[in-house]
Amino acid sequence: MPSHLRAFTGALFVAVCVSSPSLAAQESTTVGGYGEIQYVNPSGANTPATVDVRRLVAYLAHTFSDRLALRSEVEIEHAKVESTSPTGEIAVEQVVLDYRLGERVTIRSGLLLVPLGIVNEVHEPPTFNGVDRPAVDLFVIPTTWREIGAGVVGRFAEGWSYRAYLLNGLRAAGFTALGTREGSGEGQEGTFANPSFTGRVEYARPGLRAGASFWYGGTSGGDTLLGRSSFSTPVTFLAADVRYDVGGLALRGEVANVSIPDAAAINARYGAAVGRRITGGYAEAAVNLLHWLAPASSQRLAVFARHERFDTQASVAPGTTRDRTLDRHVTTMGLTYKPTWNTALKGDYQLLRNAAGIGESEVLSLGLGFQF
């Protein structure tokens, strides 16, 4: 294990050992979950409509004491998994062990959600408008992104919170013109040949939540042809987001930038077309009609609109031809009806456009989602 990792692990061990009082034996177990079913009807004669159990997630948590707690999620995508089918997946989405040192500091370890953007950490279907998650949170921030490691979370002032983790790194061998998604092992055979650091600072008060986050790490994955240092072929993610929800109005926005300065070396090594810079962002507004039509109701009926722009080849390395179809604009308009806070019936219409004007389409989607 590299010396900087030994030092970090040792510091965590000492912190646990010297933190006060022995653990109390108050144990409890919680079972929960979430899921969604989607109907998707794209325009075009050769694109038939489909209906799909997009995902079903089982949540299991156990509190060992007033200081020590475990949370875990296992996800099934597309209803079933068969060796003869390219779709379907069973995956562990997170396994998190929290040890609370005090009111302001908790040590966190395990398979952790990267604290970038809005949706990567909070992605249950009733928490966002639209049948599917925002495209920016699929192509720019590769939601649901999780890696193995440890760190600290907590708060440092009234309304201010933080998360800071040391995690295993991405592998550039998985990068493509579509982004970095396939560079993550998602908890399977991760490597600390290139450790990464990620963190988030967030400010919250009633009706308002804003945050800024980052990720930095090397991506050579032990491939010495890309470099021998811990931070060879580095990648940097920067993101900022804001949510405002007061009365019948809800606004949210997000911007993200990914920098891959050694994209030329990655492309030469793997024959890819990785962009040197990936950018994206969106703005969304929603109005809860029931706030005015039925003020006493706890139900919500939101009409919303979201506009996204993102480009996984915002800039490219010399020798790479920029693909203008990857400079995309997505406009989504729709309704979200929530009979309870944790259930949602959704419908939306999307306009998918790109700078090349090729392969553009429109999509009608319907969905239902829940969490408990």
Number of domain modules:
1
Please report the first level of CATH classification, the CATH class: Mainly Beta
Number of helices: 4
Helical content class: under 10%
Structural class: mainly beta
Principal-axis shape equals globular
The average pLDDT value, as a whole number, equals 93
**What fold name goes in the CATH topology slot?**
Porin
Distance between the termini: 40 Å
Helix-strand topology string: HEEEEEHEEEEEEHEHEEEE
The largest β sheet comes out as:
16 strands, antiparallel, barrel
Quick structural overview:
By secondary structure, this protein is mainly beta.
Summary tags:
Porin; 372 residues; 16 strands; mainly beta; 16-stranded antiparallel β-barrel; globular
Description:
Helix content is 9%, strand content 52%. The chain contains 4 helices and 16 strands. Strands 1-2-3-4-5-6-7-8-9-10-11-12-13-14-15-16 form a 16-stranded antiparallel beta barrel. A hairpin with a 4-residue loop joins strand 2 and strand 3. About 5% of the residues have low confidence.
Compile the SSE list and pairings.
Layout: H1 3-18, E1 28-42, E2 50-63, E3 68-77, E4 89-100, E5 106-113, H2 136-139, E6 146-157, E7 160-169, E8 191-205, E9 208-217, E10 235-246, E11 249-259, H3 263-270, E12 277-288, H4 290-293, E13 300-315, E14 327-338, E15 343-354, E16 361-371
